[in-house]
Amino acid sequence: MELPALRLLLLLLLSSGLTVSQEDILPHEPIKVLVGKDLSIQTLLSKPAFTFIIWNFNSNGEQTHVATLGPAGLNVNDPYKSRGVNITTDGHLTVKALTPADNGQYSINVVDSKGSTKTGEIDVKVIVSQRHFSTLTVTSVHRSDWSGLCSAPCPTHDDTEERPLQPHKPISGVKMTGPSGKLFAGNSSANLSCEAAKGSVTQVVWLKDGSALSSRAVVAADQRSVLIDPLQKEDNGEYTCTMSNAASKESAKVKLMVICERPEPVQITAESEVEVTDRVVLDCSAASVPPANYTWKFNGTKQPITTSQYVIEKAVYSNTGIYTCEAYNALTGKTSSKTHTISVKAEGELDEGLSDGAIAGIVIGVLAAVAVAIGLFFYCRQKVPVASPY
Ligand SMILES: *[C@@H]1O[C@H](CO)[C@@H](O)[C@H](O)[C@H]1NC(C)=O
Ligand SMILES: *[C@@H]1O[C@H](CO)[C@@H](O)[C@H](O)[C@H]1NC(C)=O
Ligand SMILES: *[C@@H]1O[C@H](CO)[C@@H](O)[C@H](O)[C@H]1NC(C)=O
Ligand SMILES: *[C@@H]1O[C@H](CO)[C@@H](O)[C@H](O)[C@H]1NC(C)=O
Ligand SMILES: *[C@@H]1O[C@H](CO)[C@@H](O)[C@H](O)[C@H]1NC(C)=O
């Protein structure tokens, strides 16, 4: 690409008119690279549709263009011409032989043909090792950046990027282990750890349900494990670790299911008055983990329905009565229930629009649902200890 065009593009990116997506496209943990070793920043993108992929380097408030991959191929900015820079179509940036001056933030812009842009940033810490100087110096890295896991003085880190220079062996046999047994919100913890049977791992990326981990998750200094303590209900989900080196990457997954102790309140949403031949839907919801098993009763008699919805395709007069939804949480062994009364009226008996009473009922119902949701949220949050154990 011609340089003026590139400048214009960069200018466009700096102006705010473009849509910028908030999707995570880079891992959150900083990358640590020993001085002299190569930088390899993998994105979380897989075969993105793009017109341009632009990498910039930010240090001391100044931005330097590193390189752009565009329709005409790779364009490397002058200062980086002899640095072995490459960008793959996945956005993977490589820069050879880092110096302390390469310490800083790297940012990526992925621009598609409609001008919409995905952006991401990642910190790169260039580590000056013992072999080069008499004492271990960490260039602009504070000890607290390493990890929350070691409270005593952290062990010296000479482990980052130690192996390379020989060709990377492909990674295989990646396995993640997680906690076994029941996990209770507020009083259980999880240590997820990831291992590769073969290959030298240079980068580990952790994700939960495809996005960044929560801020309560602590990634170990060697990035091989993640500790969540205590677990909260929001920690439910699928965790992925992706181990990679320049030659390959492989992922492993583990699902965590965190149980919120309290029997979850049950709500039924349905109309109270319907006309004959109307379709009636009773919606029973219980914010339960694992999903509840539902049973329904009509006037006290069990019905052959096990879903959260009870549907009457065409109401008849004898459908008038009391409906009970019971939600059973198999893990906590708790059941909660709720009743709802429906009365079936003659056709045309109910007004076209909603009566004031019905509107008030809906408003109250919505408020009650919101109140229950808020109550549940705070209930689970309350159990968070005030002081962290570290
Ligand atoms: C850059 O990466 C692409 C895609 O992996 C590869 O085909 C190309 O050979 C690389 N270029 C250099 C100079 O390494
Ligand atoms: C965690 O909660 C469960 C359920 O209430 C309880 O049985 C268990 O004793 C609690 N464990 C601790 C360590 O508090
Ligand atoms: C988590 O598990 C891994 C592998 O078993 C272990 O190396 C690590 O020390 C554990 N972390 C904590 C905080 O227990
Ligand atoms: C609850 O539902 C699940 C999934 O439908 C089923 O496997 C399980 O047997 C049910 N448990 C009870 C107690 O009905
Ligand atoms: C169900 O109960 C309601 C209210 O008690 C009653 O009016 C209705 O007739 C009953 N319906 C049947 C089919 O038993």
In short:
The strands form seven sheets. Strands 1, 2, 4, 5, 6, 9, 10 and 11 form an eight-stranded mixed sheet that branches. This protein has three helices and 28 strands.
Please render the helix and strand layout as text.
Layout (H helix, E strand, L loop, with lengths): L2 H12 L5 E2 L9 E4 L4 E3 L10 E8 L2 E9 L2 E4 L9 E2 L5 E3 L8 E8 L5 E12 L8 E2 L4 H4 L25 E6 L5 E2 L5 E9 L4 E6 L9 E2 L5 E4 L8 E9 L2 E9 L1 E2 L6 E4 L3 E3 L4 E7 L6 E6 L2 E3 L5 E4 L8 E9 L4 E12 L10 H27 L8
Parallel strand pairs: 1-10, 2-10, 13-20, 22-28
Antiparallel strand pairs: 3-8, 4-5, 4-9, 5-6, 7-8, 9-10, 10-11, 12-14, 14-17, 15-18, 16-17, 18-19, 21-23, 23-26, 24-25, 24-27, 27-28
**Proportion of residues in extended strands:** 35-45%
The first-level CATH class name of the largest domain: Mainly Beta
Question: What is the CATH architecture assignment of the largest domain?
Answer: Sandwich
The CATH superfamily name of the largest domain is Immunoglobulins
Number of helices: 3
- Which residue ranges are poorly predicted, with pLDDT under 50 across at least 5 consecutive positions? 8-19, 130-165, 374-390
Q: What structural class do the secondary elements suggest?
A: mainly beta
Principal-axes geometry comes out as elongated
Q: Would you tell me which CATH topology of the largest domain applies?
A: Immunoglobulin-like
Query: What is the CA-atom radius of gyration, in angstroms?
Result: 28 Å
What small ligands are held by the chains? 2-acetamido-2-deoxy-beta-D-glucopyranose
Question: Largest sheet, if any?
Answer: 8 strands, mixed
Which whole number gives the mean pLDDT? 77
Indicate the percent of residues in helices.
10-25%
Overall number of structural domains: 3
Assembly state here? Answer: single chain
Number of strands: 28
**Through-space gap between termini:** 52 Å
